[in-house]
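Bit of a strange request maybe. I'm writing a small parser for structure token strings and I need a real example to test against, not something I typed by hand. Could someone generate the tokens for this chain?
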Amino acid sequence: MDLDVFVSAHRAEWDRLDALLRRQRHLTGAETDELVTLYQRTATHLSLIQSSAPDPQLTGRLTQLVARARSAVTGTRRASWRDVTRFLTQGFPAAVYRSRHWWVPTALLSTAVAAVLGWWIGTHPEVQSSIAAPDELRQLTRPGGLYETYYSSHQAAAFAAQVWTNNAQAAAMCLVLGVFLGLPVLWILFENMLNLGIGAGLMSSAGRLDTFLGLVLPHGLLELTAVFVAAGTGLRLGWTVIDPGPRSRRTALAEEGRAAVGMAIGLALVLFVSGAIEGFVTPSGLPTWARITIGIAAELTFLAYVYVLGGKAARAGDTGDVEAAERSATVPTAA
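Reply from user aminoacidic:
Good idea to test on real output. This should exercise your parser:
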């Protein structure tokens, strides 16, 4: 596209739109219709320039012009409880459901890696000795040792808040860093699975794997699922950089990035629940079977939420992105 010719052909329309916006409170009915038409045309022009002949100065001017026109046409929109309800019942579960082909394999593979690491550490004394001295290992794994007292060593509310903050940060990092081809996400996942494998392996070598699982499963099922969802979504975002499909790379990243931001908010709520379980249920005096039952119930509730509500919303066309009126205008691209 010849940018100079394009600008010459459409400059008058942009100037006219700018003039109408400057006196939008005093427009006639015909001028209001003209403003809407010019807004739609200018949004299309902006999309064409961004995809074919990006020019920073011109793009900046048209972006500002389109934003002003959108505000004039649609009015200033404020968030409401309807938006919160829609996000919780449609947007977030739909986004998680749409990403299931990424986070479910991520969960299965990561769990397998943790299991192999746990087996390797638990059956190889030389590996255990490289982790810590024998006395230190006994302090970790003995009855009443550090692995057991970890969950009750702090006041429950403060511990739950700390756990929630740490896990929410890890999930957010997976979502944000996924754009770097997903490589940082793989490292974050490996660190998490290594820590899990070390704990399982050391407790298994001490003949106390059942105790370890009784401490980890109540909160770990939901917590790890949230981390796997974040990691899978981050990997999907990284793949979008490589293969955006029929969309332009800019449009694909914008759409998937907005959905990822919403995912971060939703997963923070999920991790709040798992943090509360870890702070109040895991160290409680409840029988092991009762604590594990609570963890399984929380996990099944989340999966039903994703596959029932999310599946329904996704089949209805919800992608987890913001509503159409809030998106930038785009033009079709060839497949």
